[in-house]
Amino acid sequence: MRQRTIVCPVIQNEGAYLLCKMAADRGVFPGQWALSGGGMEPGETIEQALRREIREELGEALDITTITPWRFRDDIRVKTYPDGSSEEIYMIYLIFDCISANRDVVFNDEFDEVAWVAPEDFHRYDLNEATRLTFTQKQLLK
After folding, report:
1. Helix, strand and coil in the chain, % to nearest 5
2. Helix (H/G/I), strand (E/B), else coil: 9
3. Are 140 and 122 in contact (CB under 8 A)?
4. What pLDDT does residue 15 have?
5. Half-sphere exposure of residue 30, counting CA atoms within 13 Å on the CB side?
6. What pLDDT is stored for residue 84 in this prediction?
7. How many whole angstroms separate alpha carbon 82 and alpha carbon 6?
8. Mean pLDDT in each 10-residue stretch from start to end of the chain (142 residues)?
9. Are the C-beta atoms of 54 and 72 separated by less than 8 Å?
10. How far apart are alpha carbons 88 and 62 in whole angstroms?
11. DSSP assigned state of 75
12. CA distance 23 to 43
Protein backbone atom coordinates (compact mmCIF):
# COMPACT_ATOMS: atom_id res chain seq x y z
CA MET A 1 0.00 0.00 0.00
CA ARG A 2 1.29 3.41 -0.96
CA GLN A 3 1.74 6.11 1.70
CA ARG A 4 1.14 9.84 1.16
CA THR A 5 1.66 12.83 3.44
CA ILE A 6 -1.23 15.23 2.87
CA VAL A 7 -1.14 18.93 3.75
CA CYS A 8 -4.60 20.25 4.56
CA PRO A 9 -5.39 23.94 5.09
CA VAL A 10 -8.46 24.94 7.09
CA ILE A 11 -8.84 28.37 5.46
CA GLN A 12 -10.85 31.01 7.31
CA ASN A 13 -11.76 34.55 6.30
CA GLU A 14 -13.86 36.79 8.55
CA GLY A 15 -15.53 33.83 10.28
CA ALA A 16 -16.32 31.79 7.15
CA TYR A 17 -14.44 28.67 6.07
CA LEU A 18 -13.57 27.69 2.52
CA LEU A 19 -15.26 24.45 1.43
CA CYS A 20 -14.64 22.75 -1.90
CA LYS A 21 -17.07 20.37 -3.61
CA MET A 22 -14.98 17.50 -4.94
CA ALA A 23 -15.40 16.53 -8.59
CA ALA A 24 -17.93 13.73 -8.88
CA ASP A 25 -15.63 11.42 -10.86
CA ARG A 26 -12.45 11.32 -8.76
CA GLY A 27 -10.64 11.83 -5.48
CA VAL A 28 -11.09 10.30 -2.08
CA PHE A 29 -14.59 11.71 -1.47
CA PRO A 30 -16.16 12.21 -4.94
CA GLY A 31 -19.04 14.70 -5.01
CA GLN A 32 -18.79 15.69 -1.35
CA TRP A 33 -17.76 18.97 0.25
CA ALA A 34 -14.24 19.00 1.67
CA LEU A 35 -11.23 21.04 2.63
CA SER A 36 -8.61 21.61 -0.03
CA GLY A 37 -5.15 20.08 0.17
CA GLY A 38 -3.00 17.40 -1.31
CA GLY A 39 0.16 15.38 -1.22
CA MET A 40 3.66 16.60 -0.52
CA GLU A 41 6.20 16.25 -3.33
CA PRO A 42 9.81 15.07 -2.85
CA GLY A 43 12.11 17.88 -1.74
CA GLU A 44 9.33 20.17 -0.47
CA THR A 45 9.09 21.54 3.03
CA ILE A 46 5.68 21.30 4.66
CA GLU A 47 4.97 25.01 4.14
CA GLN A 48 6.12 24.88 0.49
CA ALA A 49 3.76 21.96 -0.12
CA LEU A 50 0.87 23.73 1.62
CA ARG A 51 1.33 26.94 -0.35
CA ARG A 52 1.77 25.02 -3.64
CA GLU A 53 -1.43 23.05 -3.07
CA ILE A 54 -3.35 26.24 -2.26
CA ARG A 55 -2.01 27.92 -5.43
CA GLU A 56 -2.71 24.89 -7.65
CA GLU A 57 -6.20 24.23 -6.33
CA LEU A 58 -7.44 27.71 -5.39
CA GLY A 59 -5.45 30.14 -7.54
CA GLU A 60 -2.74 32.74 -7.15
CA ALA A 61 -5.00 35.54 -5.86
CA LEU A 62 -6.03 33.90 -2.56
CA ASP A 63 -3.82 35.68 -0.02
CA ILE A 64 -2.95 33.40 2.90
CA THR A 65 -1.55 35.63 5.64
CA THR A 66 -1.27 33.21 8.55
CA ILE A 67 -0.41 29.50 8.71
CA THR A 68 -0.50 27.73 12.08
CA PRO A 69 0.03 23.99 12.52
CA TRP A 70 -3.05 22.56 14.21
CA ARG A 71 -3.20 18.75 14.27
CA PHE A 72 -2.24 15.57 12.49
CA ARG A 73 -4.01 12.25 11.97
CA ASP A 74 -3.93 9.28 9.64
CA ASP A 75 -6.23 6.80 7.95
CA ILE A 76 -6.55 4.52 4.95
CA ARG A 77 -8.63 5.76 2.02
CA VAL A 78 -9.49 4.62 -1.48
CA LYS A 79 -8.68 7.23 -4.13
CA THR A 80 -10.45 7.15 -7.50
CA TYR A 81 -8.72 8.56 -10.58
CA PRO A 82 -10.34 10.24 -13.64
CA ASP A 83 -9.76 7.08 -15.72
CA GLY A 84 -11.89 5.08 -13.26
CA SER A 85 -9.00 3.23 -11.62
CA SER A 86 -8.57 3.36 -7.85
CA GLU A 87 -6.06 2.50 -5.15
CA GLU A 88 -5.95 2.19 -1.39
CA ILE A 89 -3.57 4.71 0.21
CA TYR A 90 -2.32 5.16 3.76
CA MET A 91 -2.65 8.92 4.32
CA ILE A 92 -0.96 11.04 6.98
CA TYR A 93 -2.77 14.37 7.29
CA LEU A 94 -0.97 17.52 8.47
CA ILE A 95 -3.74 20.02 9.21
CA PHE A 96 -3.16 23.78 9.40
CA ASP A 97 -5.26 26.74 10.48
CA CYS A 98 -4.94 29.36 7.74
CA ILE A 99 -6.23 32.92 7.60
CA SER A 100 -6.80 34.57 4.25
CA ALA A 101 -6.89 38.30 3.64
CA ASN A 102 -9.43 37.90 0.83
CA ARG A 103 -11.89 35.47 -0.76
CA ASP A 104 -10.43 35.53 -4.27
CA VAL A 105 -10.61 31.90 -5.38
CA VAL A 106 -10.16 30.45 -8.86
CA PHE A 107 -10.48 26.70 -8.39
CA ASN A 108 -9.10 23.94 -10.60
CA ASP A 109 -10.80 20.88 -12.09
CA GLU A 110 -10.47 18.88 -8.86
CA PHE A 111 -13.54 20.77 -7.61
CA ASP A 112 -17.00 21.39 -9.03
CA GLU A 113 -17.54 24.48 -6.87
CA VAL A 114 -16.34 26.30 -3.76
CA ALA A 115 -18.12 28.23 -1.01
CA TRP A 116 -17.24 30.37 1.99
CA VAL A 117 -19.42 28.95 4.77
CA ALA A 118 -20.13 30.11 8.30
CA PRO A 119 -20.01 27.29 10.88
CA GLU A 120 -23.73 27.59 11.62
CA ASP A 121 -24.38 26.67 7.95
CA PHE A 122 -22.15 23.57 7.76
CA HIS A 123 -25.24 21.37 8.18
CA ARG A 124 -26.44 22.53 4.74
CA TYR A 125 -23.45 20.84 3.04
CA ASP A 126 -22.72 17.17 2.44
CA LEU A 127 -19.38 17.27 4.26
CA ASN A 128 -17.11 14.30 3.79
CA GLU A 129 -16.19 12.22 6.81
CA ALA A 130 -12.70 13.74 7.25
CA THR A 131 -13.93 17.34 7.02
CA ARG A 132 -16.76 16.60 9.44
CA LEU A 133 -14.21 15.14 11.89
CA THR A 134 -11.94 18.19 11.54
CA PHE A 135 -14.77 20.65 12.22
CA THR A 136 -16.02 18.55 15.13
CA GLN A 137 -12.54 18.48 16.67
CA LYS A 138 -12.31 22.26 16.20
CA GLN A 139 -15.68 22.51 18.02
CA LEU A 140 -17.26 24.18 15.00
CA LEU A 141 -19.68 21.32 14.37
CA LYS A 142 -21.66 19.17 16.78
Report:
1. 20, 45, 35
2. strand
3. yes
4. 97
5. 11
6. 86
7. 20
8. 96 98 85 96 96 96 97 93 91 97 94 97 96 96 86
9. no
10. 32
11. E
12. 28
